């Protein structure tokens, strides 16, 4: 069943795209991540241009985040005050990211930059996740206990001026910290099409010192509005959003997330983290090979 993607300017098998969305949704349901950091590389592997893959993945993340935000809001798992500050930073970051995206696009380097950023970020995050997973599994086998980390914000955050009280998080810190965090995530959302949860969640835990019970919900709240802004900016400036592609991905991810949530209940969290770390590292290695591997056709001709 082939469908023509008007923005990507190629025909794809609709069932394959839905399957890719389903795979990302399955991982999302199993591991509690948005999945955007895997959607873009998988689309690139399939042959979708990186610019269209990144822009359309942001659209898919927006749709996939809605149900998560409502679920966490019902159980009071969102710090709306903190989330609002991050959303402001994220929207500003999306605007700045659009300018960077256009500059790289005009210079012809956007595809390479997207691939390099993915290799660096996925490699680093996958490595840290693998280290923590191995430590936890070793501790389980040997019967030793890992000391619990004390919740405290980073000294750099403590040194920033203009402190505010964030009552739901129990913090008294400068709003500049979550504002800058949101700004950086907004730029990543524009360039890579990711929701940024795989960056936001560790930063909120280890830099801001937020409690775990509000971290995921607040991250999803920020992701929802920032990806909405990124999609709007992409649609009006870069013209890289392919709504047909995003719709197919969303259909698959919604279905896959339901099955992923069921599988997650049957597996131990320690093993889940190890599997996710392995998947992230494999994607990073595949992206790195794509950067250095000589293609079959060195030159390509584009007819407009």
Automatic annotation (TrEMBL):
The lineage of its organism: Bacteria, Pseudomonadati, Pseudomonadota, Alphaproteobacteria, Sphingomonadales. Keywords: Cell membrane, Membrane, Transmembrane, Transmembrane helix. It comes from the Bacteria. Belongs to the 4-toluene sulfonate uptake permease (TSUP) (TC 2.A.102) family. It is a multi-pass membrane protein. Its main location: membrane. The chain crosses the membrane at residues 12-38, 44-71, 83-104, 110-130, 171-194, 214-233, 240-259, 271-289. This is Probable membrane transporter protein. The keyword Transmembrane helix applies. It comes from Sphingomonas colocasiae. It is found in: Cell membrane; Membrane. InterPro entries: TM_pro_TauE-like, TSUP/Inactive_protease-like.
